Amino acid sequence: MNAKTKGYILGAVAAATYGMNPLFALPLYENGMDTDSVLLFRYLFALPLLGVMLKARGRDFRLQRREILPLIVLGLLVAVSSLTLFQSYHYMDAGIASTLLFVYPILVALIMAVAFKEKVTLQTALCILLALCGIGLLYRNGDGSTLNLTGTIMVFASALSYALYIVGINRTVLKNVATLKVTFYILLSGLTLFFVRLDFGEHITVPDRWYLWGNLLALAIFPTAISFLCTTGAIQYIGSTPTAILGALEPVTAVFFGVAVFGEPLTPRIGCGIAMIILAVTLIIAGGNITTYMIRFRKLFPKLPIRKP
């Protein structure tokens, strides 16, 4: 598997696992936990997992002096993105919030174009437009009311923070640092924000039912450790903009769990929206050459007969 293919796979996994946030967070809210406590445990439980992975791969925890400040800044950006997204769940449906979060690929493309003079190709622009049309079809408000302004602002703040993180990690000295180490210290830095907001631990709330600890652990594993690790790896393999566009899979994941877990109907409009998003992601991966990509994809399955061009 070449680096480009590996990057696309990592980007897809990162997006899909990040879309699991509502699945594990909402039951915790329903049982009285506040946003900062949920996120504190989420980051806290993820750190040992990453630490074990670091040691298992024979890497150390040492940092160069020039790497410390970027890690602190990017860690706070990730923490702010998590905080505003999770707070938005109190003001609107989690599926809608996850859907609105998808504006971050547009912000990434704009930041890269304005700040770093990166060329936005016609294909990239059309794929963003196609994905946004799919998101528009997925968008709905159950009772037909207008979206809450506070919640909407929080989601857009989350999107901007996440876009700045995606750009920053690809444009700093961290680009050449081991993925596991970067992810570990970004979460460690972000953890301090929640600790401070909880008055240095004095106002932490904990689950009152044993099985809810499983939700906290799942938050640490899937949308935190796995998602951030795969995001960082994808950015290093394929760059910021393709990784951001692959984030189209996040709302698809939210819809899937809405249908499978919460019994939401899968209407033709929703199905069409999902198809448009998948098509946009496929075109980005193909890079304008579907045939070449399909050959690479089939090589992942050696038992299949492959006809070389």
From TrEMBL:
InterPro entries: AA-Vitamin_Transporters, EamA_dom, EmrE-like. Belongs to the EamA transporter family. The keyword Transmembrane helix applies. The chain crosses the membrane at residues 7-26, 38-56, 68-89, 95-115, 122-139, 145-167, 179-198, 210-231, 243-262, 274-295. It is found in: Membrane. Residues 6-139, 150-285 form the EamA domain. PANTHER family: EAMA DOMAIN-CONTAINING PROTEIN, INNER MEMBRANE TRANSPORTER. This is DMT family transporter. It comes from Alistipes ihumii AP11. It holds the Pfam family EamA. Keywords: Membrane, Transmembrane, Transmembrane helix.
